[in-house]
Amino acid sequence: MSTSIRISDETKQKLEAIKREGESFDDLLDRLARSDRDVREMAGFGPEGIDEHMESKRTELNDAFENRESPGEPRDRTDDR
Asked: pTM for the whole thing?
């Protein structure tokens, strides 16, 4: 079954701007209408233990960012000995 909806030309232009290549307007509106609950339910498709693995990698990445040097900042060479 198909339904027609009326939208302004301005709204149509905005939707066209965010529509992905090959995506229909129905697909676009379905994507935009997804709720947080829908996304949480889809997240259950990952393999067992993926959440622990992701948390571990997030921690590693955060540690790496905290320990990196800022550009132009002199390096403390006392640790190189």
From this structure: 0.44
If phi > 0 it is left, if psi is from -120 to 50 it is alpha, else beta; for residue 69 that is beta
Task: List helix spans (H) across the chain.
Answer: 9-18, 25-33, 36-42, 50-67
pLDDT digits (tens, 9 = 90+) for 15-73: 999 999 999 999 999 888 876 666 666 666 666 677 788 888 899 998 888 887 766 66
30: phi > 0 → left, psi -120 to 50 → alpha, else beta; which?
A: alpha
Q: What is the largest CA-CA distance in the chain?
A: 74
